[in-house]
Amino acid sequence: MADQTGVTDQVDVIVVGLGPAGEMVGGKLAQAGLSVLGIEANLVGGECPYWGCNPSKMMIRAGHVLTEAGRVDQLAGTATVAPSWRPVAARVREEATADWDDTAARNRFEEAGGAFLRGRAELTGPGRVSVAGVEYAATRAVVLAAGTRPAIPPVDGLAETPYWTNREAIEAREVPESLVVLGGGAVGLELAQVYARFGAAVTVVEAHDRLASAEEPEASALLQEALAEEGITVHTAAKVSRISYDGAHFRLECGDDLGVTGQRLLVATGRRPDLAGLQLARVGLDPEAKAVAVDRRMRAGDRLWAVGDITGVGMFTHVAVYQAEIAVRDILGEPGPAADYRAVPRVTFTDPEVGAVGMTEAQARAAGLRVLTGVSQVSQTARGWIHGPGNRGFVKLIADADEEVLVGATAAGPVGGEVLSGLAVAVAGRVPIDTLRHMIYAYPTFHRGVLDAVRDLS
Ligand SMILES: Cc1cc2nc3c(=O)[nH]c(=O)nc-3n(C[C@H](O)[C@H](O)[C@H](O)COP(=O)(O)OP(=O)(O)OC[C@H]3O[C@@H](n4cnc5c(N)ncnc54)[C@H](O)[C@@H]3O)c2cc1C
Ligand SMILES: NC(=O)c1ccc[n+]([C@@H]2O[C@H](COP(=O)([O-])OP(=O)(O)OC[C@H]3O[C@@H](n4cnc5c(N)ncnc54)[C@H](O)[C@@H]3O)[C@@H](O)[C@H]2O)c1
Predict the structure, then answer these.
(1) Which pLDDT does position 106 carry in this prediction?
(2) What residues are paired with 326 via a beta bridge?
(3) Is the distance from the beta carbon of residue 51 to the nearest atom of ligand 2 less than 6 Å?
(4) Which residues of the chain have pLDDT under 50?
């Protein structure tokens, strides 16, 4: 096999899937001296560098530049802005993805000492995996790191249409005249705003009664307002009953009185692992489960570990690589802390950017905590006032009144994901609220809004 180098049928460790999680586990175990076989069906690096985090953030960066340039008239003179998708598509091709070529990542893995096999793996039993009918055995560990794929809802007609997932949206060489985005979560919102900023007439259709429903309701309201201001149409609580395509346009039927049309349709309704395809039942695990259940050391069974999105936790690259480090330590028998998800940070890179960590207010109340909340508005801070146009946002803190620590926080605004950093430390480190109230915050920063929110806790 052309893609097969130094592959033997018995190794210490087999890693199934070389996305951010599997690449890290495989590379580190190989560097530690174990014989590692890494199996990847598609591109070494996974979803994040080729169709996820990196190219989408390059697109978002370009959209932000356009919007900032549009504010010159209000702040600094005059500017004429003429959006062009050409440099964006070129940068995604040339800089982010090397035209979807994983040679560099594969070399990196092999230079770390791993043996690489391109193919789709399935489990054949404990410690055993097969690819294209050839079986491989691992004496020490099989690590499942097969990630997820888009969850396509069973809407009548959808499967017969040429809909986009994140992959086509990232690979696009042109901006459609109109785009319908099904799903108002992270993928849908980030890409909806990018495409709108480059001239598409965008409609977001969300089943839940608010956008970004995993986050604070204040974040949902903020995003809805910001998107509307940019001309994006948002339908929430929309139940799509049928989708059709007439060769030029998609049409979504949402009940009796709403029909939505667009030249392209992006389906962004979540992601699921393909557990049946991995033949999970052959190692005694439930292939119908939503994710592979793991303990706090990423163990999923006898000589079996799972890391990354396939575990259903977080579904972020930073969680995937966090779990990978824990699995590496556990497989090597090294000491170190077990997984702790109390302070998982997450950022939706819209404008305003929504950063959050730990629990939302609703989650804290559902957990039975005696909850205090504190809110400040970016526009009412000195920095927000100086910033002017584009200063929408807030800080919301969730505190455990008995423990006198923060258990969650949201920082939404121009650099919400960066403001989040201190809040993530406060939640992870259980910094006493009294300390947060009496420490010094640099003037005039966006993060000074945290002090106003701390003072507002009640
Ligand atoms: C549009 C978009 C934007 C995103 N933006 C961000 C962001 O800004 N920040 C963030 O933290 N996260 C972001 N994410 C999420 C991030 O991409 C994932 O959390 C991350 O890629 C998970 O890594 P993973 O290794 O678990 O899985 P994946 O990256 O999905 O990698 C799994 C790999 O396993 C391979 N595979 C699957 N089945 C098999 C098999 N049977 N045999 C062999 N190989 C197999 C796949 O081909 C794939 O390469 C984004 C996702 C999307 C879709
Ligand atoms: N910035 C980031 O870190 C980032 C960016 C993009 C994606 N991601 C990750 O990728 C994963 C997938 O993102 P996603 O946005 O696809 O999933 P998601 O679960 O975040 O959002 C999916 C949305 O689609 C809606 N939905 C589901 N079925 C629907 C239907 N039939 N009609 C209308 N709406 C429907 C849901 O209510 C939800 O709001 C996320 O878990 C996220 O962790 C992260």
Answers:
(1) 98
(2) none
(3) no
(4) 1-3
Ligand 1, atom 19, residue with closest C-alpha:
316
Q: What tokens does 116 get?
A: 């690489």
Index of the ligand 2 atom closest to the CA of residue 349? 1
C-beta separation of 282 from 299 below 8 A: no
Q: From ligand 1's centre to the CA of 273, what distance in Å?
A: 10
Contact 156, 242 (CB under 8 A): yes
378 closest CA partner among 366, 387, 365, 369:
387
Q: Are 346 and 334 in contact (CB under 8 A)?
A: no
CA geometry: angle at 286 spanning 281 and 287, to 5°? 70
**Which of 3.40.50.720, 3.30.390.30, 2.70.20.10, 3.30.360.10 would CATH assign to domain 345-457?**
3.30.390.30
DSSP state string for 90-151: HHIIIIISTTT--HHHHHHHHHTT-EEEES-EEEEETTEEEETTEEEEEEEEEEE----EE-
Distances (CA, A) of 375 to 183, 342, 361, 409, 435: 28, 21, 12, 10, 18
Six token digits for residue 370: 């005696």
Tens-digit pLDDT profile for residues 265-297: 999 999 999 999 999 999 999 999 999 999 999
Give 7 Cα–ligand 2 centroid separation in angstroms.
Answer: 38
Q: Is the CB of 151 under 6 A from ligand 2?
A: no
Say which residue the tokens 């995937």 belong to: 320
Pocket test for ligand 2, best of 315, 322, 351 (most atoms within 8 A of CB): 315
Which option is the CATH number for 158-266: 3.40.1110.10, 3.50.50.60, 3.30.470.20, 2.40.50.140? 3.50.50.60
Is 423 assigned a ligand-binding role in the annotation? no
Retrieve residue 351's tokens: 């404008």
Q: Provide ipTM, 2 decimals.
A: 0.99
- 368 CA → ligand 1 middle, Å: 34
* Cβ of residue 143 lying under 6 Å from some atom of ligand 2: no
Cα 337 to Cα 321: distance, rounded to the nearest angstrom: 15
Looking at all shown ligands, the one closest to residue 279's CA atom is 1
Q: At the top level of CATH, which class does the domain 10-45+102-150+272-332 belong to? A: alpha beta
Binding site annotation covers 309? yes
